[in-house]
Design brief:
alpha+beta, 10-stranded mixed sheet, 14 helices, 32% helix, globular
Length: 553
Amino acid sequence: FYNDNLRSAKSEYIYISDGTEMDLVPHFTFYGYRYVKIEGIPDLKKEDFTGLSYYSNITATGWMKTGSDLVNQLISNVRWGLKCNFVDVPTDCPQRDERMGWTGDAQIYALSGSYVADTYNFMRQWMDTVRADCGETGMSSQYCPAFVTYDLEADDKIPHNGQSFGITWNCLVVTIPYNLYMQTGKLDIVKDNIDNIYAYVDHLASTPMTYKDENGDKQEDARLTGETGTLCDHLSRIPTDGVMLGNVLYINCLDQAAVLADAMGDTEKAQSYREAAATAREAWNEFFIDPDTGKTKNTKGEIQDTQASYATPLRFHVVSDENLEKVLENYNASIAEASGEDSDGMPIVPYTLTTGFNATGNLLNALSDYGLNDTAYKLFESTDYASWLYPVTQGATSIWERWNGYTNELGFNGNNSMNSFNHYSLGAVYEWMVAYQLGIKADESQPGYQHFILQPTVGGDFTEAKGSYDSVYGTIKSGWTAADGVMTSYDVTVPANTSATLYLPVSGDITACDGVTIMGAAQHNSIETQQMELVAGTYHFEVTDGNVTVTAA
């Protein structure tokens, strides 16, 4: 049958029987759906059917559970989002006529996805397809593989389809190899893609940003890129200037390319990218921050003051030290004091989301990186529209594409032809849950988790959170209990042949056991902690009135 939601992707399979018993398996398509309706066969019962899910064979890399049933359902939704959409290529949805390898969705979710499952080989083989589509500029299409029209007799090679769809999409050529290298320490994906990474970053750098001055005359600035494309914070409730946000991603590409160049031994290339990034940061702050108020603005000088306009530059550490304090105040206010209406006329209330593709995955990371954990937890736990948990309260069993896919006030809001209830990109929040809530995070100076960072973060109404991540060296476990927002215990397993730096949010005396070296008080991610170095082992931290007793399991 056909409906608005599926558009031209008919969930239809026609077989004309000759009366013999036959097992039917479609070989050239698959279907994404939640409910099945069967007519014309009497006396059917639910028990007569077995449901089988269809996805690529990717091994899970860990689990997570909290004291919140709603959050636990969100975790399940994130996992099913990956399973349903990692089918040979990372599709954006499994049901409508858009089940293709959309690059923006993939780069937004790639780091979260690596915490869910071992996606390294899956992503590495897909990046082969991405590179084949990029051409001399290193720029990808909005989806890969992309279908192009060509004449084998007239054309000596298949033309490339790379285009400036939006840097939120195109930058996957850098961000996916970088994140998977950080998570695994494996250089193969970097070696595969390094020439394309250089081509793309050099192309961005060679395309100056253009703007109009106060007299309306066109100007350009080569310190920033003009190759930011069209789409940016796609499907946000409040729009944010794409040139401003796009140049944050440009700076992030320079930063990441420098790290990857060093990994490949290209030290001169790495240094040139670091210098370009420093210059671009200076220019970004000059163009896009009002120095008096610390509010963000576009190239015309118009104030933006949106969650996206702060979250993305803060997450990627683009805001200068001079502007940081005011920007953080504005960012916190954009969440805690949110008001007004969105583009649908829906009220915007405090501790709800207004961001889209570019910025949603940056919101909580930016808060926790700068010690704003109270705001982060209030935003994360919100069930108001729009929030990560609002769809869960509506019965969602996977991640939705749109915040307004369904609301109590507007129903489906006339979005049926562009309304997926099984996308994974907004499930990028899972990265924050593992890296900040559980506190398991790669040490960027030592990729691959032979040495890693632990900083469990207690907050909100959570009384416990626990989980694991299967690194290439073994399973890392992290879990805590809390009462009234204060940690009461912490348990961690550091795998054999690894070590970890732990930043524990306590301030009292520590009685340690063998394997734990106390380094003393340290501020990390803008909060006061006690820093410890852990060798391989399993440890229990009992916290009483801020004092800690550590025992080995």
